[in-house]
Write a structure and sequence with these properties.
The protein is α+β, with helices and mostly antiparallel strands. The protein is built from 3 helices and 10 strands, in the order βαββααβββββββ. The chain has one domain. The protein starts with a strand and ends with a strand.
Length: about 160
């Protein structure tokens, strides 16, 4: 089981930021999501087409308030049941078991909009088993994976329903 840590860089905590800035400081099996651009918790994941995704992206608030952070915190004990990247732009969408969706805008101009880091688990401690997904300038996504990863995968991952 991976633990997802979410860092909204608008409200940085220096100690946490220093801890998560380098892989060697993450505990085994941790997953860290850094938000560097607009985001919101939506009632549902947008339909999987560029028009609906862009409409969701255009509706995101410019400034994050404590109310938005409260919505984000309300997701902390929920499981992620679906993950999707945007079709035309690298928007990141995480759907939780409540049906709510954390939507991160995928185009931050000349800057990265979001980043995900996953560390090896205690059971598989090989440091080469790290994952890094970065939404790069222009809205594309760069992925660094373990050497033995099979890149023939679908861009949408769906957890099997139990």
């Amino acid at each position: 089981m991976l633990t997802l840590y979410i860092d909204d860089s608008l409200f940085p905590d220096k100690e946490a930021r220093d801890r998560f800035s380098h892989y060697q400081n993450l505990r085994p099996g941790e997953c860290w999501l850094m938000l560097e651009h607009k985001w919101a918790v939506l009632d549902a994941m947008p339909f999987a087409d560029a028009e609906h995704e862009q409409a969701a992206a255009d509706s995101l608030p410019e400034a994050i308030t404590y109310s938005h952070l409260g919505e984000l915190a309300s997701l902390h004990d929920q499981s992620i049941v679906a993950i999707r990247l945007g079709i035309a732009v690298g928007h990141l969408m995480l759907q939780f078991d409540s049906g709510r969706c954390l939507f991160i805008h995928g185009d931050h101009g000349m800057y990265e909009a979001w980043e995900i880091r996953v560390t090896p688990t205690r059971e598989h401690p090989d440091p080469e088993k790290r994952w890094l997904l970065v939404n790069i300038p222009g809205g594309d996504v760069a992925i660094w994976t373990p050497d033995d990863f099979d890149p023939n995968f679908d861009t949408e991952w769906q957890r099997p329903h139990e």
